[in-house]
Specification:
The structure is a single chain. The chain is mainly β. The chain has a domain at about 30-75. The protein has no helices and five strands. The protein has strands spanning about 30-35, 40-45, 55, 60-65, 70-75. A five-stranded antiparallel β-sheet has the order 4-3-2-1-5, with no helix packed on it. The termini are far apart. The model has no long low-confidence stretch (mean pLDDT about 85).
């Protein structure tokens, strides 16, 4: 028998904290962005309300960037 209830939460100071999920990034058409690999760009298309992918114009090329947008940041 388990002596701890099923819904027990770890203490805030515990080194065994449950990993937290990073907030999802959301981009809209017209947003200026920077990408670690492609540089500065502007969002020109959004697929699935931004949950699937965004189309970004980086000047010399257009790239379809999919979730998660780890290398892309809104300016």
């Amino acid at each position: 028998m388990n002596k701890f209830p099923a819904g027990r939460r770890p203490l805030p100071t515990s080194p065994f904290k449950a990993p937290t999920e990073a907030p999802r990034k959301h981009f809209d058409v017209g947003d200026r962005v920077t990408h670690d690999g492609f540089g500065l760009g502007r969002v020109i298309g959004v697929e699935g309300d931004g949950d699937i992918a965004v189309l970004v114009d980086f000047g010399s090329r257009r790239e379809r960037i999919t979730q998660p947008y780890t290398a892309m940041f809104k300016l």
